[in-house]
Design a protein that fits this description.
Layout lengths: L1 H15 L16 E2 L6 H6 L5 H9 L3 H4 L5 E6 L1 H5 L3 H9 L1 H9 L2 E3 L10 E5 L5 E7 L2 E4 L2 E10 L2 E6 L6 H4 L5
Parallel strand pairs: 1-7, 2-8
Antiparallel strand pairs: 2-3, 4-5, 5-6, 6-7, 7-8
Length: 179
């Protein structure tokens, strides 16, 4: 089951970040990548091995079709290193629970196309999951929900991907989960 979910989760997150930098996004280190207009955020993620876990998760949750739709979507995509921070048994449990997995993944997606240049010093955005999350921009980089945004502006035909260094957990799931 984990082998199936890992590629899905990675592909979904790959869509968020085609290229990953070694640290938080900054004015000097922000990565901007223009994808071929024909590639959706899911296509971009699926083509990047750093998002194999995300792609696996997206497929397991049945979200690949939706995220391949017209959008636009802003995806804050955790890379494989982000998923590796979750204990294996806990990750397996999440991947096996479609409702929880869908909630977690949709918490990484914001309707509309938000480019790095559009970020304000501090703003709350509503995710597809339904909860709001805070994005903070400083001279040192940007964070979403306290998590570093490590690469930005990976543009697809139906949105944009920003790569993040940890998996975000929706506040509603925090009380019900041991994450």
């Amino acid at each position: 089951m984990r082998r199936l979910l890992a590629p899905v989760l990675v592909a979904a997150l790959c869509a968020v970040a085609l290229s990953v930098s070694s640290g938080p996004a900054t004015a000097q280190s922000t990565t901007t990548t223009q994808a071929a207009t024909a590639k959706t955020v899911v296509d971009i993620a699926a083509s990047n091995p750093d998002f194999s876990t995300l792609v696996t998760a997206v497929k397991a949750a049945g979200l690949a079709g939706t995220l391949s739709g017209p959008g636009p979507f802003t995806v804050f995509a955790p890379n494989n290193a982000a998923f590796a921070k979750i204990p294996p048994a806990q990750l397996q449990s999440i991947l096996a629970d479609k409702e929880k997995l869908t909630s977690i993944l949709t918490y990484h997606v914001v309707p509309g196309k938000i480019m790095a240049a559009d970020l304000k010093k501090s703003q709350k955005v509503k995710t597809v999951e339904g909860s709001k999350v805070v994005i903070v921009k400083t001279k040192k980089g940007a964070k979403i929900g306290g998590v570093d945004i490590v690469a930005t502006d990976i543009v697809g035909s139906n949105g944009v991907i920003h790569v993040i260094g940890e998996v975000l957990i929706p506040p509603k799931k925090m009380a019900k989960s041991s994450m």
